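Sequence decides. Consider this:

===
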Amino acid sequence: MPEDLTFQILDVSYEVEAGRPVIEIWARDDKGRRIVLLDDSFRPYFYALLEEGQDPSAVSAAVRRLSKPRSPITGVDLVEARYFGRPVKALRVQTVIPETVRDYREEVAKLPGVKEVLEADVRFSIRYLIDKNLYPMRWYRASGERVQRNDFVVDAVYKLSSDLAEEPSLADVDPLEGLRIMAFDIEAYNPQGSPNPSRDPVVVIGMAFNDGEKVQLQAKGHDDKDVLREFVELVRRKDPDIIVGYNQNSFDWPYLLERAKVNGLKLEVGRKRGAEPSPSVFGHISVQGRLNVDLYNFAEEIEEVKVKSLDEVADYLGVMPKDKRVNIEWWKIAEYWDSPERRGLLLAYNVDDVTSTLGLAYQFLPFGAQLSQISGLPLDQVAAASVAFRLEMRFMREARKLGELVPNRKEEEARAFETYTGAIVLEPKPGVHKDVAVLDFASMYPSIMVKYNVGPDTLLKEGERCERENQAPGVGHRFCADRPAFFRRVLERFLKWRAEVKAAMKKYPGGSPQYRLLNERQRAIKVLANASYGYMGWAAARWYCKGCAESVTAWGRELITKAVSIARSLGLQVYYGDTDSLFVANEPEKVSRLIEEITKGLEFDIKVDKVYSRVFFTEAKKRYAGLTADGKIDIVGFEAVRGDWSELAKETQANVAEIVLRTGDVRKAIEYVKAVINDLRSGKANVEKLVIWKTLTKGLDEYEAEAPHVYAARMMEKLGFKVDVGSKIGYVIVKGEGPVSRRARPYFIVKPTEIDYNYYIDKQVVPAALRILELFGVSERELKSGARQASLFDYLGKKGG
């Protein structure tokens, strides 16, 4: 007898049973049970776009003749749809087994009268979510009949007997509330540098749960068989809905799977018997029935942190300060494990790692859950996917609702080399300026796309005409304004939705649970909306449109130019402009008039984003530093926010900027730099701050020039360390003859006495400091020996800032 069920969708998968696909909806219900809902009624399909003027019945008959007994073609139906906004006719080809769609796609594409085969690359479980308009992490109602199944490790299994309907009363409930979260981190024995899973055991597994429990599993000497067994048993007992780690998709899971294989075990940690974690889309590891979320994916999006190590990210986000935790050299884990005196430090290090990981989960998962609810990708996939893939998933859903066929992904190499003129960046007014307001256009590029109806479906081809057209300035592309663009419809929904959410936030005190939930939601909407412009120029985009992207930047340049003209007509000094912002003198009455004229006259929203009490620009674009009215230092474009300088160089530059901006005393900044130089000369510098980090962007054998990080990486490889594309190489420069690249060494094999401190003075600290101090007439010679008497206020007087 069917039961009425209320449940939250966590994930969707499928299996082929008795020759037919069965959708598996993994969920938790409102009684706290973990359940699976089965739907065996859904079938895979794709579209054959017909050539204009073709006889649909003739092509349909040809398609039917391709049918094979293993997975017969069960339906060929003529549909009228739209493709890039133009009306088209297509055949909807349905079969039984999802995997056979690929084979049929190739054969159908060769048939006469078929112009293109579409939507054959949409994964079956994702197709189900799109067609049924279902979003992971949201709550639904449905009826289902309970069935007995021994292959699922859940509280109950149901066969669906009705469609799913969203439960509106739970729309604003925290999607993470009541979910069980587990963080884990492993330590692998590594006597020969990088650990080898075919040889080196897992010696420690740390686990932390959101119910407060922490567990640490330890190997017996160098035998990890029991540790792996205990890990599987504990995961089953605690039954987490979400498993988090830090880089576990690339290291922990593959290592554990290989160690289980070596030990003759199965790593059955999912909610389906016999299933082990396995590689899935976007490079993430799928754990059936659980959401395996690699927090490193979210950390990669934090631009302010250049070295994305767990301790750095946890320190930056205030989860665990670096100076309050245990840190050990990772390449010495085997030494710590084998030493009775030092093993305790390794265990404490592991506890701090797994505690930090759980802390990062509390920081990242609320945003991830909202991204999942909005994009429609399950939480584990939305974490691993790029923002373009997240946005595209939403586009695919909207296309379905609007009767638009989804284009194929064409990763044409030529697209990657297509260029166009980007945003306008005004020449800065060099010097130090007081009381400067920064005005930002709200969602400028999405707003341009909406106002001018930009999209590949409205971009007019040669000879096409519309009653109303919008022509992009300078580039000549025309867009039909007679019908709403596909992108415009989606973006209008996003912008309206975000405005509604922000209005709702005002009803709650800042910091309250409801306020935080809504804030994460508006952030997620903003991220997706703002990605729309970049998406059009992404070479792998289904709705790729270079002309669209080129037009948006053209209208953006025009908008900034007009805004500057208005500001100057009001007598406002304009110091700088970049993409969607203007830096002007903070004269409140004139600034208010500027905002009003832009809002009413140009029909774009603009607001004061921040006010700098002091800001200085060099002669270079995109390079400035400012002190905000609330005391925060912003540094843009200098070495302090680039990843190819040592931490000491970045720290020195940031401190120089802060001293100059806060005190106005250039002499203090000079004395500070001289102190740093003296510490280097006397060997007192913290060696960790001298490490330079660079990422390998290709295989070592593909590098022709021998850059320092490549030389160090080759040395690491000879020492037994595994390095490949994406590896972050940390190196220092040592004393000796020859080019700098030949004097680069992996940082962990170098003694302090071997370091070339003069290199760090001449090529790191002094150049980084001079990027700012040369603006005040300071020379390299002064930093190394002399002194200077002028102050920032002298400089302000000379420049008239």
Notes: Residues 343-375 form the longest helix (33 residues). DSSP finds 23 helices and 28 strands in the chain.
